[in-house]
């Protein structure tokens, strides 16, 4: 598993996404995102991407999840990273999306 941790994290169903994600955060925050994404650990993923300025990753995740509560969390006016996220959604996540439903939910 060491030589391809991303493959392991996406294909192995036998781990707790929160525990493994937390473990990965200090070593490689992008791997933590892989674990959190698998487990749909929205708040953890938003937190680690905010702390590490991984707004491209965060924007892709939020668009793919199509979850109104998650949108409410990241678009909260109190979120100091709101602007960075919106910029990445517009410049990266939406242009990459091949799913019209993702786009329409995002635009709402």
TrEMBL record:
CHCR repeats lie at residues 1-87. GO terms for cellular component: chloroplast; clathrin complex; Golgi apparatus; plasma membrane; plasmodesma. Transmembrane segments: none annotated. GO terms for biological process: intracellular protein transport; receptor-mediated endocytosis. GO terms for molecular function: clathrin light chain binding. It comes from the Eukaryota. It holds the Pfam family Clathrin. PANTHER family: CLATHRIN HEAVY CHAIN (PTHR10292:SF1), CLATHRIN HEAVY CHAIN RELATED (PTHR10292). This is Uncharacterized protein. It comes from Pycnococcus provasolii.
């Amino acid at each position: 598993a060491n030589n391809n941790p991303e493959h392991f994290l996406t294909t192995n169903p036998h781990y707790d996404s929160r525990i493994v994600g937390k473990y990965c955060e200090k070593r490689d925050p992008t791997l933590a995102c892989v674990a959190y994404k698998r487990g749909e650990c929205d708040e953890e993923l938003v937190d680690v991407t905010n702390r590490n300025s991984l707004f491209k990753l965060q924007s892709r995740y939020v668009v793919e999840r199509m979850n109104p509560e998650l949108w409410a969390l990241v678009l909260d006016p109190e979120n100091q990273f709101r602007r960075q996220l919106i910029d990445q959604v517009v410049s990266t996540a939406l242009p990459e999306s091949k799913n019209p439903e993702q786009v329409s939910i995002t635009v709402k």
